C-alpha cells in the first residue's frame, strides 16, 4: 500500500510539472474567461485578507516578545528592529502567507476541481469544446500569481507595524531606534526576495492544487483524499523551495544585523 501511494504521488508530481509546461505552451492561444479570472482574484486576494492580517498580527506579537526580551537581556536593544524586520521580510511573511493560502485556497481549488472530475463535469467541458486548462487552471494560476505577492506585502507591513507597537509598549524600545536599526540592516534586495519567494509559492499552490483535483478518483472519498494530499504536498514543497531559495539568496548578507548593532 505504501508503494502504491508513493507511486501515485510521484505520478501526480510529474503530471504537475507537465501541466506547468502545457499551460506555458497554451499562453499564446489561451481563451481567457474574464468573469472567472476576476472571481478567482477576489477569492485569493480580498477573500483571504482577513485571515492573513490576523495571522500576521499575532505572529508578529509573539515573535517580537520573544526576540525583544532576549535582546534586552543581552543589552542589544539597538538590534531588535533589524532582527525582526529581516526575519519577517526574508522568511516569515512570504512563508506564512503561502501557508495560509495553501490551507485556505489550495484546498478549495483541489476540492472544486476534484468534485468536477468525479461528477464528470470535466468531460462535459470537452464536449462543449472548452479546454479545462483555459477555463479552470489558468484563472487560478493568474489569481495566485497576482495576489500572493500583494498579500505578502500587506502581511509584512502589518507585522512591522505591530512589532514596533509591541516593542514600544511592552519593552520601552523607541520606534526611532527600532526603525533606524531596521533600515540600516534592510536593503531592497531583501524585499525583492520576498516577492520572488511569493511568486514561486504562488505557482506551487496553483499548479499542485489544480493537478491534484484533475487526477482525483474514487468519488467523495477520493475528493477528501486528494484535498488532504494536495495541502500536504504544497506545504512540503513550499518548505523545500524556501530552503533552496534562501540558500542561494542570502549567502552574502549575513553581516546585516551586525552592522545594525553598531548604531
UniProtKB/TrEMBL annotation:
- Give a yes or no for keyword Nucleotide-binding in this entry: no
Name the InterPro entries on file.
ABC_MlaE_roteobac, Permease_MalE
Keywords recorded for this protein, A-Z: Chloroplast, Membrane, Plastid, Transmembrane, Transmembrane helix, Transport
Q: What is this protein called?
A: Hypothetical chloroplast RF63
Compartments where found: Membrane
- A Pfam family per the record: MlaE
Q: Which residues cross the membrane?
A: 41-64, 71-89, 191-214, 226-250
Recorded topology in the membrane:
Multi-pass membrane protein
Entry's Gene Ontology molecular function annotations: phospholipid transporter activity
Q: Family membership, please give it.
A: Belongs to the MlaE permease family.
Record's GO cellular component terms: ATP-binding cassette (ABC) transporter complex
Write the gene name.
ycf63
Q: What superkingdom heads the lineage?
A: Eukaryota
Amino acid at each position: 500500500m505504501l508503494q502504491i501511494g508513493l507511486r501515485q504521488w510521484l505520478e501526480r508530481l510529474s503530471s504537475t510539472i507537465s501541466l506547468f509546461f502545457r499551460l506555458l505552451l497554451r499562453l499564446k492561444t489561451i481563451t481567457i474567461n474574464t468573469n472567472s479570472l476576476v472571481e478567482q482574484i477576489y477569492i485569493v486576494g480580498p477573500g483571504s485578507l482577513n485571515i492573513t492580517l490576523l495571522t500576521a498580527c499575532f505572529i508578529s506579537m509573539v515573535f517580537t516578545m520573544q526576540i525583544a526580551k532576549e535582546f534586552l537581556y543581552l543589552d542589544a536593544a539597538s538590534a531588535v528592529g533589524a532582527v525582526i524586520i529581516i526575519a519577517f521580510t526574508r522568511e516569515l511573511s512570504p512563508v506564512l502567507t503561502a501557508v495560509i493560502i495553501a490551507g485556505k485556497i489550495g484546498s478549495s481549488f483541489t476540492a472544486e476541481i476534484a468534485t468536477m472530475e468525479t461528477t464528470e463535469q470535466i468531460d462535459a467541458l470537452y464536449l462543449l469544446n472548452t479546454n479545462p486548462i483555459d477555463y479552470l487552471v489558468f484563472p487560478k494560476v493568474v489569481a495566485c500569481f497576482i495576489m500572493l505577492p500583494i498579500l505578502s506585502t500587506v502581511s509584512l507591513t502589518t507585522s512591522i507595524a505591530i512589532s514596533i507597537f509591541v516593542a514600544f509598549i511592552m519593552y520601552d524600545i523607541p520606534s526611532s531606534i527600532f526603525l533606524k536599526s531596521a533600515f540600516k540592516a534592510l536593503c531592497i534586495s531583501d524585499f525583492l526576495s520576498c516577492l520572488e519567494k511569493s511568486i514561486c509559492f504562488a505557482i506551487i499552490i496553483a499548479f499542485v492544487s489544480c493537478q491534484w483535483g484533475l487526477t482525483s478518483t474514487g468519488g467523495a472519498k477520493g475528493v477528501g483524499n486528494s484535498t488532504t494530499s494536495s495541502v500536504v504536498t504544497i506545504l512540503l514543497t513550499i518548505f523545500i523551495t524556501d530552503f533552496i531559495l534562501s540558500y542561494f539568496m542570502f549567502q552574502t548578507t549575513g553581516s546585516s544585523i551586525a552592522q545594525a548593532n553598531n548604531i
